[in-house]
């Protein structure tokens, strides 16, 4: 039985990946942080359905000696490094922690893997944010790195150091350069989930308008369960390499919001501009969306849109759910959740 180790198993991608691996007969190990509150909602169903093949270990990647001991005991065939501070906006507030968790931690991990006798394949969760201010559209694996926020800088460092370990030390390490990928399991402080939850609550009768930052920001939004398929496939390939995982299509925050509201039969129109822009229901004129500059970022990435040709050719991976359709799937899931909670 193949063994996989997932760092970040309690997150959106980690939980979908654990499901996929268990479905493929793996024994899955995951590292979880000791905290006063449980944060395992996304994998609770797996813990009860597959207790023999899912093993959780308390630990921290920063506790290097313990983590090294754990890895040499478990001896996984595949190691997925999906952990870290994942909020770009927050990285302006906590840049040092972000760079520790998203940059230096990858180097620590590679050093451990390099020393271990047991060979393992490593996946590193890189990000479109490594391209930040690029003027190349769409971006691919060879697009020069040009990050513009602490999060992107940390991911750029880790991506490049992984390339160094691949070339210099022969470590089988893959950089998955993923563009935004969302799902009903997305954290509530990311714009997509914030929108779909607000739409569901509005439909259930809530009156408080949704407050967002830059509605003109555009992203290449895909569907997380499809991205973990590519992540797994990338470690099954003959050779290690970098892969862009993206839809190749752009959608603005405004368009995403419109699609989410429309999925719940709430048509909204926009009026005004800048901080005075508002979203109103077309049927009754009610204001359901306002701008709050607190959510503006000091700098915004340019047009991050990915070319996934390499993943398509080598891994036979292709996204199926794109932008507005992702919004629809998430809004319907949140509506079910809110309906259950409120009895609507
Ligand atoms: O949902 P976001 O916070 O995602 P962002 O910054 O693109 O980062 C996500 O995708 C990256 C690429 O895959 C990952 F590396 C990263 O870990 C994370 O998963 O923001 C998306 C856009 C931004 O332009 C932001 O300015 O939405 C804009 N936005 C507008 N109003 C908002 C809001 N973002 C948030 N979080 N909250 C708002 O109210």
Would you give an account of this structure?
Helices cover 40% and strands 18% of the residues. The protein is α/β, with parallel strands linked by helices and 344 residues long. It folds into 2 domains: 3-183 and 222-249 and 302-322, Rossmann fold (3-Layer(aba) Sandwich), CATH 3.40.50.720; 191-216 and 252-300 and 328-342, UDP-galactose 4-epimerase, domain 1 (Alpha-Beta Complex), CATH 3.90.25. The protein has a 7-stranded parallel β-sheet, sandwiched between helices. Strands 8-15-14-13 form a 4-stranded mixed β-sheet. Helix 1 (12-23) links the parallel strand 1 and strand 2 (27-32). The longest helix is centred in the first third of the chain and has 21 residues, at 95-115. The structure holds ligand G4F.
Q: What is the percent of helical residues? A: 40-55%
Any low-confidence stretches, pLDDT <50, length ≥5?
Answer: none
Order of helices and strands: EHEHEHEHHEHEEHEEEHEEHEEEHH
How many distinct folded domains? 2
The fraction of residues assigned to DSSP E strands is 15-25%
Question: What structural category do the secondary elements indicate?
Answer: alpha/beta
Q: What is the number of E strands?
A: 15
Our count of helices gives 11
CATH fold name of the largest domain, please? Answer: Rossmann fold
Would you identify the CATH H-level superfamily of the largest domain?
NAD(P)-binding Rossmann-like Domain
Under CATH at level 1, the class of the largest domain stands as Alpha Beta
Bound molecules: ligand G4F
Q: Any idea what the radius of gyration is? A: 20 Å
Named at the architecture level, the CATH assignment of the largest domain is 3-Layer(aba) Sandwich
